[in-house]
Design brief:
2 helices
Length: about 60
Amino acid sequence: MKWLIYVVFIIMYLLVTFFGLGPVLFADGSNSERIITLVIVVVIYIILSVSLKLLIKKTSR
């Protein structure tokens, strides 16, 4: 069961990296647009990390 959780979260991290950091690095918009996108991506990473930690903690009981 734990390996399935890890696989799902690895896929989610890869998707966020691909679709989130791509526009930050390669966007042709203004710098403020890039910063806003970067902040949103970082918040998504934090939410994913906290969710993974809580889920692993819950399943290890």
